[in-house]
Amino acid sequence: MPAPANPTTSASSAAAQARAVQSRDTTPQDLTAAALTRIEAARDLNAVLSVNPHAAEQAAQVQARLNAGETLPLAGVPVIVKDNINVTGTATTSGSRILRGYVSPYDATAAARLVQAGAVIVAKANMDEFAMGSSTENSAYGPTLNPHDPARVPGGSSGGSAVAVAAGLSAVSLGSDTGGSVRQPAAFTGVYGLKPTYGRVSRYGLIAYASSLDQIGPFARTAEDLALIMNVIAGYDPHDATSLNAPPAFAAGTPDDLRGLRVGVITESLAGNTAGVNATLNATLDALRGAGATTAEVSLPELRYAIAAYYLIAMPEASSNLARFDGMVYGQRVQGSDVTEAMTLTREQGFGPEVQRRILIGTYALSSGYYDAYYSKAMKVRRLIADRFTQAFGQFDVLITPTSPFPAFRRGEKTSDPLAMYAADVDTVAINLAGLPALSVPAGFETVDGTPLPVGIQFIAPALHDERLVRVAGALEGIGIAQPQVAPGY
């Protein structure tokens, strides 16, 4: 999608903004001021929890570096990051009461690399508390609204980051994806959402939910912007023992990249979808074939166990990771008659109901007598799922599914039924279990109650072939399938 001439508008791309700054057609200060104005005007969406008090200072520093002759790939580009990513001097709450008032003393590696590349981190995005949710209704600071229909959810847990891009508050943003938390909100809001290979982007400075599943990933409205931001944030980090030494080489592709591409349609993803989701998937497959790709179905029967295995791994890891939030070192503390009572009251009042539910289930699954029955068995299923994906990639270059079996649902529709909420991730969790890269592409709309709602299609690649997904995104833009844009009215 060609970028508009004015780089300060809501629809401008990050690449266009950086080029305008580099050519002195605008300044980092102007871009930052414009982004802050848009954030303030869209307060009703509740996508942003806090504005970076040092944003103007960061913009001035970028200008000084440019004046000194530095070449900065993200020169002056405003970026919004999820509130579980530490940024020096900013409030970082992870959407929880228990971290109210906490100010980050350091940068996450991904945030530090953005700043080093010349970006200005302007704000922190709303999220489900500790990234636990699929709708951004679990935030202690209120739900985020979907700009396509404020009565509907934007997905989660990175709903604020998705809305930031979909409503034009920033051209790009960062979220985190543990079981679909970048891809599903990207699908619900009509933007790109990339979950990189596990370890491709450092997790240092990301507040952990489930350490073996978490991965920072970007939202964007163009394949060029996906490539731009991934070339900055990906790469080995000595602070993260799980990061991979795989230097990034991202670039948007062209329709020529689709010729001969072998696309596997996962059979298990074809049932249970709404009519609009099926129509969008079929239209995407038709377009791929028309551009020279080949398609065929492939069955991954182990995926029927993915939801159960995912939650029996994620919740135990969460119960371990969240043990550090006890009011003794940082965050809120509720006074008690002794240390034990203080910790108990702090956690009882600081954690929301969904976080408490997952901690309790996770602790139970790890308890004596149940570890082998639940957590250990889930880890074996995880291995089977990963092996099945490896077999499938022996036949196909990419695999394809809907990102979600339905478009954005109404606020409150699933909050009383946790199992229904968990099932919303049916098309995404297996990718995290296998550590693979996947991209949600905004490929169409389904009209519900008179409102066109975005539909996302998910492309999955072998481990460390993240670049292939970005090339596919650019190719789909070239044939008119992927057309992400700012939501109407923003």
TrEMBL record:
Enzyme class: ligase
EC number: 6.3.5.7
Region (Disordered): 1-28
Keyword Oxidoreductase annotated: no
Keyword Transcription: no
Record keywords, A-Z: ATP-binding, Ligase, Nucleotide-binding, Protein biosynthesis
InterPro entries: Amidase (IPR000120), Amidase_CS (IPR020556), Amidase_dom (IPR023631), AS_sf (IPR036928), GatA (IPR004412)
Biased composition (Low complexity): 1-24
UniProt cross-references to Pfam families, sorted A to Z: Amidase (PF01425)
Highest rank taxon of the organism: Bacteria
Stretches assigned to the Amidase domain: 30-469
Residues at the catalytic site: 82, 157, 181
Catalysis: reaction(s): L-glutamyl-tRNA(Gln) + L-glutamine + ATP + H2O = L-glutaminyl-tRNA(Gln) + L-glutamate + ADP + phosphate + H(+)
Family of this protein: Belongs to the amidase family. GatA subfamily.
PANTHER family: GLUTAMYL-TRNA(GLN) AMIDOTRANSFERASE SUBUNIT A, TRANSAMIDASE
Quaternary context: Heterotrimer of A, B and C subunits.
Role description: Allows the formation of correctly charged Gln-tRNA(Gln) through the transamidation of misacylated Glu-tRNA(Gln) in organisms which lack glutaminyl-tRNA synthetase. The reaction takes place in the presence of glutamine and ATP through an activated gamma-phospho-Glu-tRNA(Gln).
Descriptive protein name: Glutamyl-tRNA(Gln) amidotransferase subunit A
Gene name for this UniProt entry: gatA
